[in-house]
Amino acid sequence: FEWIDARDTIAPEGHPQRSTISHRGRSSVPVANSNTDGKDVPEFEPFGLMPRGPPPLKEFLDIWDVNMLNQPNEINKRNHHTHLYATENLIVRRGQEFQIRITFDRPYKPTQDHFLVEFVIGSYPQVSKGTYIPLRVDEELSGSWRGRVVQTMDNMVTVGITPAPDCIVGRFRMYVAVITPYGIRRTQKDPSRDVYILFNPWSPADTVFLNDEAERDECILNESGIIFYGEASDISVRPWNYGQFEYGVLDACLQVMDRATMPLVNRGDAVKVARMASAMMNSKDDDGVLVGNWTGDYFYGVAPTSWTGSVEILLDYANSNQGVCYAQCWVYAGVFNTFLRCLGIPARVVSNFYSAHDNDGNLRTDIILDENGKVDKERTKDSIWNYHCWNECYMARTDLPQGFGGWQVVDATPQETSDGLYRCGPASVHAIKHGQVCYPFDAPFIFAEVNSDVVFYQRNKNGTLEPVRVNKSHVGRMVLTKDIGKESARDITSQYKFAEDTEEERTVLQKAEEFGCSRIQSTLPPADVEMKASVQDVMVGNDFQLSLEFRNQSDSHRTTNVYISGNVVYYTGVTSSEFILKTQNVTLKPFELVIVDVKSQEYLRKLVDQANLHFIITGRVDESGQIITAMHVVSLHTPKLSIKVSGTARVSEEMLVTVEFTNPFKFNLEDVSVRMEGPGLMLAKKKQYSLIPTNSTLTWTESFKPRRSGQAWLMASLDCQALRQVYGHLEVNIQP
């Protein structure tokens, strides 16, 4: 059956506001693109003409009750791994049987009685679109949905229903209908009988099937995560509450697809869902979830470094229908990860250290030097992100040749447009590693993020540029994700690229060049002087030393003027200000070590978000004219938050959590925001402090009652204009 809205008429002339009804002349009904829209199904649907008066239906079955078996400890949620979702509705996974129990007014007689279990989603449901599924359980069915009578006992019938492994993912309305000679008599609309159907990574028939139990549990069932940031040789961690099972999050994720006006018929395709969501996580062009901000001014929203999880963001978006302020790459990745895991697509957050932003596919980041070997800041426009976070989701790619399924890169951070929207992926990780960047989606851009060269050019007096130095190993230095079941990092760089200067890498670059991605081809003269920069771990506000190590590999002395440029940079590599510029004459013996002292007062007042310092050291050897270069990023460490709990760690028992922080700096911290939350423990809470004087301690205590048993994390953050990225987390074991 189909329902047609009589109000869908052609707009009168002069009323452009009704021009959204554009299906007329193209199709008989609009495209169904909302999970929530839907009209009431008639309680009685007659067959043909009806005699006057009500039909005699007393001799046929009457439905007294429908039990969805939807409690967390019952068969459905246990078998479908959905017992953690904080909702009373039944949540199941496609391609796997679930059961309902129907109570009739008398015992069921298979040869005499006939009934349907109907599933409806959206407006204008149609069998051909997969939005109306009339499941007759007492005879053999055509189609990929299946039903059977599992058990009969007195007046109760237990029915087993198996959704198609490629069916639409969303919230279905469910009805039970008895078939009579006069028509169909069905149950009334009851939201408590609605069924959520999700992707199923446990089913081999589903395109998101992941045949690794430990990884599947990590990438679907784990609500707490670690996101890595900082610098490749100095990794820091921030905890993140994905909270995919928290109350309201599943509905918020479905609402994201509704806001995207994604046709319901496309919502069973994991590739299309992931690509749609990569656009909808940002609000750049489509009223998406998060508003990006890299300016450092967060007066009208929440600083990206202050967030501790996705739940608050998604619920705010669902309630306000407006983009939530503000986000940077790890916030986009954290919320995107929640969306994917919540719908049943295995997903993880990935951090690429020294990530190139290449919008022309030339695999090159250019740094321009003047004739003396000093960086020409006016002409140097390219930058490299110290790190960049994106997501990987696991799925088969039936749209690609065999072998390109598995982990796929998706990125919600708005960097470049793809097919007219700010989105990226899904792109096969296997294709990226092997240079097969011709396959959709956006593989050349991601290939460049991990494979670009850093090329130093010398500007000659006639204005021409000559490549004088190439660093082929700086970009894509390390790709990390959270290890399975641990808090440590898992290095997955080898899944993206072969080792530098190997035969496999050369073959990949040749293959990528066939599709328009090419590296610089110039042959540079061998160098007899090498330079390396290093710094020990540095806390914000501390003085430190920059060590420059020179290796003179010739038999003679070498002399050079070394230019040391220290810059305060955003984590995207964009320079905010230069805080140090020194010139030092160095006479190089076969080995020489130069120490440069950096005082805190030189950089402290100029710090921006995430406290990164970028040193570029260049010089020209007088005897040979050779250009020497080195780059080093210093991630300034911040103090940690202390988190303690007290009370009985048991479900529904009151506990206390205390967050402590001591200001170790020689200056006061003003307008300080503190947040804490924990999946299954407590929703996000926040508190503002106008002032934390130097050497004083902040103490904040809150009560909470755990909602479920098992291991869980409490997470907290402290954030203010003068100090970003202060985090802490604590694992708590809750008893039943």
Automatic annotation (TrEMBL):
<dbReference type="GO" id="GO:0072378">
    <property type="term" value="P:blood coagulation, fibrin clot formation"/>
</dbReference>
<keyword id="KW-0106">Calcium</keyword>
<feature type="binding site">
    <location>
        <position position="451"/>
    </location>
    <ligand>
        <name>Ca(2+)</name>
    </ligand>
</feature>
<feature type="binding site">
    <location>
        <position position="505"/>
    </location>
    <ligand>
        <name>Ca(2+)</name>
    </ligand>
</feature>
<dbReference type="InterPro" id="IPR001102">
    <property type="entry name" value="Transglutaminase_N"/>
</dbReference>
<dbReference type="GO" id="GO:0003810">
    <property type="term" value="F:protein-glutamine gamma-glutamyltransferase activity"/>
</dbReference>
<dbReference type="InterPro" id="IPR038765">
    <property type="entry name" value="Papain-like_cys_pep_sf"/>
</dbReference>
<dbReference type="InterPro" id="IPR008958">
    <property type="entry name" value="Transglutaminase_C"/>
</dbReference>
<feature type="active site">
    <location>
        <position position="388"/>
    </location>
</feature>
<dbReference type="InterPro" id="IPR036985">
    <property type="entry name" value="Transglutaminase-like_sf"/>
</dbReference>
<feature type="active site">
    <location>
        <position position="411"/>
    </location>
</feature>
<feature type="binding site">
    <location>
        <position position="500"/>
    </location>
    <ligand>
        <name>Ca(2+)</name>
    </ligand>
</feature>
<feature type="binding site">
    <location>
        <position position="453"/>
    </location>
    <ligand>
        <name>Ca(2+)</name>
    </ligand>
</feature>
<comment type="similarity">
    <text>Belongs to the transglutaminase superfamily. Transglutaminase family.</text>
</comment>
<feature type="compositionally biased region" description="Basic and acidic residues">
    <location>
        <begin position="1"/>
        <end position="10"/>
    </location>
</feature>
<dbReference type="InterPro" id="IPR036238">
    <property type="entry name" value="Transglutaminase_C_sf"/>
</dbReference>
<feature type="region of interest" description="Disordered">
    <location>
        <begin position="1"/>
        <end position="41"/>
    </location>
</feature>
<keyword id="KW-0479">Metal-binding</keyword>
<dbReference type="InterPro" id="IPR050779">
    <property type="entry name" value="Transglutaminase"/>
</dbReference>
<keyword id="KW-0012">Acyltransferase</keyword>
<dbReference type="Pfam" id="PF00868">
    <property type="entry name" value="Transglut_N"/>
</dbReference>
<dbReference type="InterPro" id="IPR002931">
    <property type="entry name" value="Transglutaminase-like"/>
</dbReference>
<dbReference type="Pfam" id="PF00927">
    <property type="entry name" value="Transglut_C"/>
</dbReference>
<dbReference type="InterPro" id="IPR013783">
    <property type="entry name" value="Ig-like_fold"/>
</dbReference>
<dbReference type="GO" id="GO:0046872">
    <property type="term" value="F:metal ion binding"/>
</dbReference>
<dbReference type="GO" id="GO:0007399">
    <property type="term" value="P:nervous system development"/>
</dbReference>
<dbReference type="InterPro" id="IPR023608">
    <property type="entry name" value="Transglutaminase_animal"/>
</dbReference>
<dbReference type="InterPro" id="IPR014756">
    <property type="entry name" value="Ig_E-set"/>
</dbReference>
<protein>
    <recommendedName>
        <fullName>protein-glutamine gamma-glutamyltransferase</fullName>
        <ecNumber>2.3.2.13</ecNumber>
    </recommendedName>
</protein>
<feature type="active site">
    <location>
        <position position="329"/>
    </location>
</feature>
<dbReference type="Pfam" id="PF01841">
    <property type="entry name" value="Transglut_core"/>
</dbReference>
<feature type="domain" description="Transglutaminase-like">
    <location>
        <begin position="321"/>
        <end position="414"/>
    </location>
</feature>
<keyword id="KW-0808">Transferase</keyword>
